[in-house]
Write a structure and sequence with these properties.
Length: 457
Amino acid sequence: MDTERRNKEKAAAAIMARRFCVVLTKYVDIGNYQYEPEKSVVGEFATREEANEAAWLKMTNTWHFEEWGEKEYAGKPPPYSSIDVYHDGSGEYAEIEVVDRVAEFKWKKRRLAEAKASIPPANAKANVSDPSQRKFGKIDLSFLIDENIFARNLCRIPGGVTCLPSDYPHYGGGTEGQESYAYQIQRLSDRNYAMRGLCLDGYGAEYSTFETSEASMPAVVWYPRTNLNDHGDDETIIDGCHLDLIDSTSGDTRLTGRNLHAAVAHATASRKPVQCLFLNGTDPESANSISADEIASAITKCSNTLLCVSLSECVLNANILASLASCSTLRGLIIDGCSLGSGGERATDANLSAVLRACSELRWLFIQSPVFGEHSWGALASEGTCLGLEVMWVDEDRARAHHSDPNSIRSALAGRVDKLKLCMINPDLQHVSRYVAGRAGRMQGVKRSGSAMTTNI
């Protein structure tokens, strides 16, 4: 006990020795009246007086405040902001502030407690069509940002750290905060639960879009009848698409193979069949990204019970696709933004086509990846392959100048007129499908750079 007390005292003393932190934030103009903050720590001090002196010195030596800063802020403590006088609405501006780490810690602790105890907002899904009618497609409905959804439903995979949405980039970005990083992860989560709703509960699949300042294509919002708020304690779901698993400062994933397998082992010990596996790797190129083989191993351990799998920004290789092909009861699959590995284990179109031939129960197929190509279209054109497919959203590669042979795509869609409810194939810049099952003619839409519009069936 004495050792523990001494360690706590040392930790407290260390914090007090650098309690006051001077922070310089440069807001870089990225166009369209949007600014990207770049924070840097000027220094750490034991007293506010020392920190104020350092902030004043930094202000007098920062070009944003040249010629006017000393006069404007004479005798005034920080914060200092060049937007007050210098900034004319364009270009870069800067702010210098003193952060009291103790006060900030107490404030964040209080806010997190409030977030965890918050009540979910009246969900937009309440206005979605009656689920018994099983509506599909794009609808005109506003998006709903539930910024506390992840704090309210803590990640059940070990290794997660709960932070405030405001700790992540672009907080408040967009007219209603829809460009925040936290909402981006919520949209991915809602897409996963929309897949689950269709595959397990028989619901339809409805979505809408909104324009963003950074992307060439509108962002997609899905409206699941049930989402993480309804399934936070559902042990049949291993949900690694969670804000707790993303470092708020670096963007690196906290999802590791060890922690993922611990979650699988816990479910197995609890005799709960793992029906859904949702993973977000956040950055396929990061050294901290969970490996493809670790994901493949986790899928294999649950292969007899898995019904839905979602892989976003993970490293995808041939072993993952082979493990997916062993999931004979799989009903829903999402592969989005994944890198394809390298060497002999690189994921290929032929590997994916084997998944489509083996998983005959697929009802939801969402692939945004160049791994989908001629072999996969050929598999879907084969007799008896994925006859129950209702949602098919395939974007082979937004950057690719040429997509698969139109005749291959027509053959794959030709026999699905009666069953396929939502069809989005190599969409244009307005999310208009280039192919519509059962319809002849040419799709009208905005041409992508380097891409030709194709004839629909």
